[in-house]
């Protein structure tokens, strides 16, 4: 089956057709009756869909590449070690052997109320967010007016930090390319969808620019293995020959429905060297604008310390590069 | 639908969305593969598909068309790893054991080929998705390291927090 054949099969099956990769999240969604498809179209065997290859100026990762393939790939480890680390530490080894890049980006949030048959929450088109007054220790600290579930994707923040682009193929062969940053929808922007894929569109591949971006990833979780992050941080910076930052992104995960850019930190880093003072100040402002809930104020402090850890990792790489 | 099961080309007629776990147990009569949670959390249903450990409770049968599936029954002949599980008491009630062994098998094979004994951290991460409620894991880690050539008494130097 080709991409176009998959798109045609999905179009024929409308409404009620759904595309699947490994189906890891899809099983849960079926059991939770969040999706009730009449037809599922597997994209796993599309030729080339799992390929990872370096071209002149980008590293291209097919959307059906598994997390373990991404974690182990020499070019990924060389160009985007933060991505290899995020892919290689998500979920468990058995899940990483099956779960795909597209599935990681498009999986639905893990909020217990969203996943519960008993709770017709905002994200399922219902009237209220049960987490606002309920269990929300692991929920959002930014954009917390409505649905406060967080994005479950660990690769999203890293790809945003790397300024990656995503290629989407639509009905009739139409395709579009957008920054990964634009793929994600804020809860306040759209309470029922997490990614900006329209009906009949498929995520085909992600391209990472080979721009010499120094990158690092840090994840904070309760258990050392097979656990969701409380907070994760991805940083990508470019430096000149003196070690001065000429551009940089600091992106937080597990704190909002989108990979959340710490713009205040980014501003502070620009045109500076990563000294102790810069790292401390950058970490201090990383949670600017946070509006935590009753029981997740701890995440604000975790954001600050996780950003400091990540910037220190970046400094070690910069020191080695100069 | 055709696939290779424990080295033999096998034809099974089952719905494509039936879980591989259920096809193995019900249609193929291979009950060595266990169901724990049915959600990819516990690893009891781990089998090898094209050499890679996966959770068979999360794989629709249709997905293994023409694939090479190996279950615990396919290891009959007793590998070094299975012998080590016996000698190091790596099993108690036994429900997690087939999954543990299939999860660790590729690591042991790789380590044996490279002539090295995997560090405890590597063994722990390999088994991060496999739960055991009896052994406390220490004997399991020791079995895996012993299968790779460690002497029983050297294996599994557990630091306090991980014991």
Task: Provide a compact summary of the structure.
The complex is a heterodimer of chains A (322) and B (163). With 322 residues, chain A is an alpha+beta fold. Helices cover 32% and strands 19% of the residues of chain A.
Keyword list:
heterodimer; A: 322 residues; alpha+beta; Uridine Diphospho-n-acetylenolpyruvylglucosamine Reductase, domain 3; Enolase-like, domain 1; 2 domains; five-stranded antiparallel β-sheet; four-stranded antiparallel β-sheet; 13 helices; 11 strands; 32% helix; 19% strand; globular; B: 163 residues; Ubiquitin-like (UB roll); DNA polymerase, domain 1; 5 helices; disordered C terminus
Q: What does this protein structure show overall?
A:
The complex is a heterodimer of chains A (322) and B (163). Chain A has 322 residues and is α+β, with helices and mostly antiparallel strands. Chain A has two domains: 48-209, Uridine Diphospho-n-acetylenolpyruvylglucosamine Reductase, domain 3; 214-321, 2-Layer Sandwich (Enolase-like, domain 1). Chain A has helices at 3-12, 24-31, 67-72, 74-79, 81-89, 93-96, 101-106, 112-115, 155-161, 180-183, 263-269, 276-284, 298-321; strands at 17-20, 39-42, 52-54, 58-62, 165-169, 175-179, 202-209, 214-220, 231-239, 245-253, 260-261. In chain A, helix 12 runs antiparallel to helix 13. The radius of gyration of chain A is 19 Å and the shape is globular. Helix content of chain B is 31%, strand content 12%. Chain B contains five helices and five strands. The model of chain B is unreliable at 158-163 (pLDDT under 50).
């Amino acid at each position: 089956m080709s991409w176009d054949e998959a798109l045609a099969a999905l179009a024929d099956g409308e409404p009620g057709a759904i595309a699947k990769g490994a189906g890891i999240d899809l099983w849960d969604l079926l059991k939770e009756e969040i999706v009730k498809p009449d037809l599922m179209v597997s994209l796993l065997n599309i030729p080339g869909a799992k390929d990872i290859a370096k071209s002149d100026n980008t590293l291209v990762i097919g959307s059906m590449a598994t997390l373990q393939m991404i974690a182990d790939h020499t070019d990924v480890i060389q160009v985007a070690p933060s991505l290899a680390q995020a892919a290689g530490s998500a979920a468990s080894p058995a899940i990483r052997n099956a779960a795909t890049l597209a599935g990681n980006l498009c999986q639905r949030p893990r909020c217990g109320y969203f996943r519960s048959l008993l709770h017709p929450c905002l994200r399922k088109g219902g009237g209220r967010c049960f987490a606002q007054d309920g269990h929300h220790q692991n929920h959002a600290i930014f954009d917390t007016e409505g649905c406060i579930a967080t994005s479950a994707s660990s690769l999203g923040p890293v790809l945003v930090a790397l300024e990656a682009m995503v290629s989407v193929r639509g009905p009739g062969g139409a395709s579009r390319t957008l920054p990964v940053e634009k793929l994600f929808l804020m809860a306040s922007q759209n309470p029922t969808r997490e990614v900006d894929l329209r009906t009949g569109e498929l995520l085909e591949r992600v391209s990472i620019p080979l721009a010499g971006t120094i990158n690092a990833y840090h994840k904070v979780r309760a258990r050392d293995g097979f656990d969701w992050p409380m907070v994760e941080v991805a940083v990508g910076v470019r430096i000149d020959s003196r070690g001065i930052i000429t551009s940089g992104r600091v992106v937080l995960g597990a704190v909002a429905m989108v990979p959340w850019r710490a713009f205040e930190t980014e501003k502070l880093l620009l045109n500076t060297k990563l000294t102790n003072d810069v790292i401390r100040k950058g970490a201090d402002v990383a949670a600017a604008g946070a509006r935590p809930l009753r029981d997740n104020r701890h995440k604000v402090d975790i954001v600050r310390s996780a950003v400091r850890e990540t910037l220190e990792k970046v400094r070690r790489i910069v020191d080695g590069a100069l | 639908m055709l696939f290779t099961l424990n080295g033999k080309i096998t034809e099974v007629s089952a719905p494509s969305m039936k879980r591989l776990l259920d096809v193995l147990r019900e249609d193929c009569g291979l009950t060595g593969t266990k169901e724990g949670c049915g959600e990819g959390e516990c690893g009891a249903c781990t089998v090898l598909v094209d050499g890679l450990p996966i959770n068979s409770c999360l794989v629709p049968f249709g997905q293994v068309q023409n694939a090479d599936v190996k279950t615990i029954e396919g290891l009959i002949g007793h590998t070094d790893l299975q012998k080590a599980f016996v000698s190091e008491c790596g099993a108690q009630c036994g429900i997690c054991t087939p999954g543990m062994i299939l999860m660790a098998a590729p690591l042991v094979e790789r380590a044996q080929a490279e002539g090295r004994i995997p560090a405890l951290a590597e063994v722990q991460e390999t088994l991060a998705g496999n739960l055991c409620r009896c052994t406390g894991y220490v004997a399991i880690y020791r079995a895996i390291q012993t299968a790779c050539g460690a002497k029983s008494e050297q294996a599994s130097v557990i630091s306090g927090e991980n014991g």
